[in-house]
Amino acid sequence: MGHKVGIVGATGAVGSELLALLEMRNFPVSELRLLASSRSAGKKVEALGATHTIEEATASSFEGLDFAIFSASGALAKELCPYAAKAGAVAIDNSSAFRMDPEVPLVIPEINRKAAKAHRGIIANPNCTTAITLMATYPLHRRFGLKRMISSTYQAVSGSGVAAMEELELQMGQLSRGEPASVKAYPYQIAMNALPHVDAFLENGYTKEEMKMVNESRKIMGLPGLIAACTCVRVPVLRSHSVSVDAEFEEPVDIEAAQSAIDAAPGIDLVDDPANLSYPMPLNFANRENCGVGRIRKGLAFDNGLSFWVVGDQLWKGAALNAIQIAECLLE
Predict the structure, then answer these.
(1) pLDDT along the chain (332 residues), means of 10
(2) Residues 6+ apart with CB under 8 A from 203
(3) Residues 6 or more apart in contact with residue 33 via CB below 8 angstroms
(4) Does the global pTM surpass 0.85?
């Protein structure tokens, strides 16, 4: 049986990946409705073997839909998700608009898929770095009991959308020709650089992105008392985020047991043989459904500590893939 699916933000970086993944995963679509801002209305898009015309996303766009997957701004999601739910669709939102709402489940299917089925019409997709980080951290939490998590991220420009991806490629070409780099997407040149600044700064000195990692991790894993901190850095990588994690656990850790926990977990590949220079890298995990984890070693900063490195495609597991997997949960 097919399902009627709407994509809000169909012309963006994540929207394009959603369309590709619906086809790749053979999601049962009987009708596809592509929605975007008024600027994109009327454009033609090829998807699922047919040509579709983009419609403007409005409060009346969701009648008859089973799923409405949002990959738009938080403001638009905040406005339109309730209309989608009221029309009978399940709204799956990629923005931060509903993530910390206690009435809205925040879901990574490999971790808390049961939460998805307790929805009231809206389900939130986590922040990309949170999703990728927890794919590696949660299996270790189940084995040893997570107590503390300190992380640093190395985030690809794909997290900022198509314009940022195009700007990185443009700057690399300009610099190779000895020309000055054109700067628009970020406050500074991103090519040949690293910016310790992802999202807006808050009064506590952290950025919104960094606090998303802290707060969303607590909610998804059901650990309200988790001690956590994060520094988020934008790096000149086109797609796939990387995260360095130092974690402290309640129980004594064992490297082989940690590797076994990762190896047995769904959605993550163990790539951990540093003697043979084998570890996950962004190039290896772009356009891959699974995340990768390696460099697993006993931590030096904490008792019962582990240090590890995790990589995942921001546009897939960090956004589009996770949203589709949430919908798939509801079809089980």
Answers:
(1) 93 93 96 91 90 94 98 94 98 97 98 96 98 98 98 97 96 98 97 97 98 98 98 97 98 97 98 98 97 98 97 97 97 88
(2) none
(3) 4, 5, 6, 7, 52, 55, 61, 65
(4) yes
What residues act catalytically? 128, 241
Helix (H) or strand (E) holding 211: helix 208-221
Task: Tell me the two tokens of residue 306.
Answer: 């582990």
CATH number of 130-314: 3.30.360.10
Q: What angle do the packed helices 109-116 and 128-144 form, to 10 degrees? A: 100
Q: Which two tokens stand for residue 219?
A: 């909610």
Residues 119 and 250: their CA atoms lie apart, in Å, by 32
Beta strands 90-93; 44-47: pairing state: unpaired
Phi, psi of 10 (to 5 degrees): -65, -20
Q: How many CB atoms lie within 10 A of CB 264?
A: 12
| Domain 3-125+319-331: assigned CATH number | 3.40.50.720
One-letter-per-residue 3-state SS of 51-62: EEECEECCCCCC
Give 195's DSSP letter: B
30: helix, strand or coil: strand
Whose tokens are 């991790």? That residue is 217
Pairing of strands 146-155, 122-124: unpaired
Q: Where are the domains of the chain?
A: 3-125+319-331, 130-314
Residue 234: beta bridge partners? Answer: 155, 195
What is the distance between the alpha carbons of residues 324 and 97, in angstroms, rounded to a whole number? 18
